[in-house]
Every structure is written in C-alpha cells, then in structure tokens.
Amino acid sequence: MEQYSLLEKWLNNSLSEAEMETFQKSEDYPFYQKLIADASNFKASHFSQLSNFESLKQRLPEKEVPVRKLNPTRWILRIASVFVLGFALFYFFQFKPEVKIETLAGQKTTVELPDASLVTLNAVSEITYSAKKWKKNRSLTLKGEAFFDVAKGARFDVITDKGSVSVLGTEFNVRQREENFEVICFEGIVKVISGNFTEELRAGERLRLHKGELIRSKSAMEGPQWNSGVSDFIESPFIEVIKELERQYNVEIILNEVSGESLFTGGFVHNDLENALRSVTEPFGLNFSISENQLVTISKREN
User: Quick one: how far is CA 240 from the chain centroid?
Assistant: First the structure.
C-alpha cells in the first residue's frame, strides 16, 4: 500500500522531499512519467482511460502474502481503494493544470511533450507546463539545464528566472543555474530575451549572461556535451564547476581555503568521480580527498 500512497500524494503534489526521492528511485517511476506525458498528448476516451489504468495496475509491484480468507468487508474496502486510485488518475489526466517533470542529482531523463518535441533534462533540473493549454500556448518553465529538440509549429517559449528563449522549430540548450544563464543554438534560429537585452542566435552561436553582462561566442559543438556524459566549461568560476560536480555525482564538496572565483576552462566525465576530480583540480595544483561517506574535500597542495 505504500506505493499507492506515494503515487496518490505525487498526483496531488504533496510529497515531502524525502518521499519524492524514494518515489523517484522506484522501478515504476519512469512508467508513471511516461503515462502522464502520454495522457497530456490527447483527450482519452472512456475505454482508453480504463486501458491505461489497467496497464498501471499491472505495473504496480505486487506484495506476496500468505493465502488466507478475507472477510467480505475487508475485501470490499480493498476493491474500493483501487477505484479511488483510478478516479484520482482519471482526474489527474483530465483536469490537472500543470505537469512537472524533475530529475535528482546524478539523473538525466528525456521526455516527449504533447507536440512531439523532445526535452532532455540534466541533473537537478525541472520543467513545468500546462498540458491543457499546450496546443494554444507552447510554453514551459525551466529550472536548471535542458536540451530541446522542438517540433516545427507555433512559437515555443522556454522561460527561466534569468531570461527566456523563443523558437519555431530548432535544437538548442538552455542552462540557468543561480545567477548564470546560457543558451547555445545547434540548429535554426533562437531569440533570447533577458531583461532589456534581446538577441538572436544562429546555429553554432552561444550567449551567456554572467553578472549582468552578455557574452557572445562561437560554439563548434553539434549538441550539448552533458548529454554525452561530459560537462564542459569556458572561463567559468571554479565554484560553478564544483556545484555541477555535486549535481552529477550527488556528493558534497568542501573547498578548504580554495578560491571559488578562479576561472576554469575544461570539463569532466560523469561516470568516474576520481577522474572528474583530477580533471578540475590538477589545472590549479590542488589536492582532493574522498571520505567513506562520499564527502569530498579540495585543498591546496602542501609545499
């Protein structure tokens, strides 16, 4: 019953942080995400809704219990609980105003939007959009970083705390972490709006907002490196690099008398923590240590 309880609270957006982490680690979480994304794609008939619900019930883990007779009242209550869950799912598919998809540290996921556009979320990122209004308004809110492969059609807007991006159909990457905002265009043309700035980017161009200053540069990449398991940086403050390491590896990193303002150009892989730490510390002549509980300390080398 715990799985049903978490599912119901997830549908009502009432999970605690700990419960959300447990629910997202469950084997069936990707199935729930896809089911909701598919449901937002169309207005299902009565029969297709029942079919989706039956499919969901089959995917829920069954708990093995000793065979015993149940009294009629208890059996009726069990049946009723299934119908309550079914009604909750039906209500969610038909009336829930917003869909939110998010990733935890060390996670990445690709989702399909109602218009067949694809969004790949980097670690510790989330998107929110209205499934009900999607056909008339292709707009979503992003926190973190995501790569977009947008299906051609009406204007498509990505809104962040630091700026927005508008396109008709193209491929681009948007990154918004703390005070930093970056857009890279891989195909087509994108319009970037941030405060009083409005800029157009073509394929192979990058725009970065750092401390209120817009920095425009070229990009030879054919797609975001992080989507291939590598995080890359160009003259980025060291503290930004450290925070991205924490997101990708789900670890805590302490800088011991090390400046976070030094600029770093380079990258690190997502599948080998020690390799990644060497990649970001050696250029500055720093040492690192990893404790048993995955606490990382970076410090200056002793002379």
Answer: 18
